[in-house]
Design goal:
Blueprint lengths: L1 H10 L11 H29 L4 H22 L5 H4 L1 H16 L8 H24 L4 H22 L5 H4 L3 H17 L4 H21 L12
Length: 227
Amino acid sequence: MQLCHLAREIGGLNCAHPRKLPILTAMSLLHILDLLSTFTFALVGARVAADKALDYGGIAFVAAIASVSGGTLRNVFLGLRPIWIIDPWIISSIIAAVILTLVFRRVTHIGRSLLIMDTFGLAVATMSGVQLAREMNTTWFAAILLGVITAVTGGLLRDVLCQVEPVLLHRETIGTSSLVGAATFVALLQLNVAGNLSAILGGAVVVATRTISIHFDLHLPRFNSQR
């Protein structure tokens, strides 16, 4: 019954009709995506906070904000309760990320490993946002925008709280990568490609776009006040 209630909160499952329970397959995918992105963003957020020499409370707070703010904003726009309110696994994944950061005290500046994790989280969160939006029967452009919002909000707030110049606003085409991946996911769904395959391909596009932009130092044109 709890599983049914959780599925209804996330994606509108009608528990009065048992024959509709196959929807739980899609909900399971969405739940896994949320957990993966939450843990990844929490871990990256905690490491960035530790790198800025915040205390334990600050590290935990930044990790929580970085990991759940995107999904929370997405759910608010969709008229749903934030999933961390009803799903203890979300909070557990944040706690696990903070504990890992505190136990392994060696602090490294943002390097290859954190970039890989952040890119993975970006892809997973984008697909999660699009998946839920489509389950809620939103328009295609709303699904794309909600996918981007889910993916980039946490990182933006993380950088602001840690007094770091937001990566989203000046380099690495994070927003562009998420946008292209979300658009790919939606386009494949419109072509009746299987949902799981669409999510995998869309996520791969996010990873490939950001990886290429980092490797070749590609970014959107910047405003130049000098003529």
